[in-house]
Amino acid sequence: MKNLRIRLSLLAFLLTICLTACQPADSQPIDTTAVIETTAAPVTEPAPTTLDIVKDGICQYTIIRPEMGNETVIGHAQKIRNQLGTLTGVYPDLGTDWVQRNTEHNHETLEILVGLTDYSESAEALQGIPYGDYIVKAVGNKLVINAWSEDGLSRAVTAFNKALTQNTQNQNCILPPDINLTGTAVGIVNELPVYTGGKIRSIYHSGDNNQVIIIDDTSADEYAAYRKTLEDAGYTLYTENDITGNRFATYTNSGHVVTAGFYGYNKESRIIIEPRSTLPALESENQYQKVVEPKFAMLGLEFMSGDSLSQNGICFIWQLSDGSFIIVDGGFNRSRDAKAIYDYMYKHAPDKNNITIASWIMTHAHGDHAGAWYQFAQNYYNRVTLEQMIGNFPSDEAREDGGLGSEGSGSSKIMKYVSNFKGAKFIKAHVGQEFFLRDAKVEILYTLESYAPNTLSYFNTSSLIFTLEIAGQRFLILGDASNNACTITQKMYGDYLKSDFIHAAHHGYTTGSDSLGHGGVTTVYTKAAAPVVLWPIGEQDYANMYKRAYSAHLQNLKTTKEIIVAGSRDFSVNLPYTYGTSGQETILSLTPAA
To answer: Which domains does the chain have, with CATH numbers?
Structure first.
């Protein structure tokens, strides 16, 4: 090239001399200072005719997964590595999408991208792919195996490993460059329009064919725009609710229900789609006639077990102004607990022959909460009318992924027994829903869907958290909520948690790993600032429990005026209730020291 430039410059010099000699005397000199350089046309690399994954004993590709991928994604990357190793005897390296700050990914290296990595190629492969589908294709120098959901990614990995098998000969694995494997894994989410904005984190199966699309880094405006997109797609607004910057709306069409939520505290949208089913009744449909004063009861379910008293589960009962009841949980799988529930309602029902349960709310599927329901549903179904049960139970996959074994596996049994009651319906609760039940209103503040897609390694994280308002007073119901559940709840709602009644979460027992602390729980207690604390536990166990730091927090709050321990007796008062006026001396009622 250097010799060529010298020759061109010499030729230009000679040409200038020649032209100068030949031009007329009065003509302007020719400008020879701008010399145009020419280069040869770039050589275009021929398109690859094959994707040589493993050739001649060498693996050309590294397998990359998301740095923050869960155990499922990590397992998928390992499956691909093991498949290649089994087929060819060569095991590729494993890596993650982590790079140092202000550093870009190398788009030239040959890599197999598994799942929702931070590489632009991963996102590019998903463009135009419905939420329920998966894709395996080459994008530049990357082989992308991707899907919006874990189910989809599992299908994609299976399809890819099958392609590896079909394209391996003599321990060489060579794929066609136009590989394009697609399919549907979660059909129901394909009924949703695509959310514009934010970044989709995952699609989570929350049980009962409910799917949750979780979108990070979005805004209230993008959420509002998506609601308009739902309407344009043929969905009709059923109801909406705004709570301290958190926005919720329910939409329906002929086959599906969509619950769209925007979580203001962390700029997330969570879009839940489920098959069309029973919805909470609208406030305008809530008609009733007052015949009694509303009441509240906490049943004492403590009992002798051998030589000692055993702690009770939870059984809260409200009587509404029309004489019907709301029940929360119920107690153990014992006939005496079921009988205690029926006896209380029979005693207070204005019409003993028409006992109506407006709603039975199940916080979670642990035996000391849901057990009494089994007995009640089998022995009293023909003596009462049950209108509906409210709950939200994790899927079997969520329990298995968390290594919980059979813990909480009774949820299907809980829902099955609802059919024992003629006309009764099960409603799966979602955050932001309001249930108008005569003169009471139940508002759902937390379900496991707010914790997803984190692994459910502690079953109490699946407990509902909700408020119940009646007679101008507010009950904050925590069930057995874990510290993780309470942390999300206090971040979402803050001072909105202010209540007249609260109960000790998980009976005052630990609310998760002690190494994680209990700051979420104690913050909820502080924000609730409830003068009346309900402690659903036996007196003997309470004596060993209240001194623990997170339980003592309830004792030490200046806002706490009365603590009522369930013990083995029933605490029952008319509403509204003023602390210290129950007149029930047999109830352990404590006034904390100033």
So the answer is: 51-185 (3.30.379.10), 196-275 (3.30.160), 283-590 (3.60.15.10)
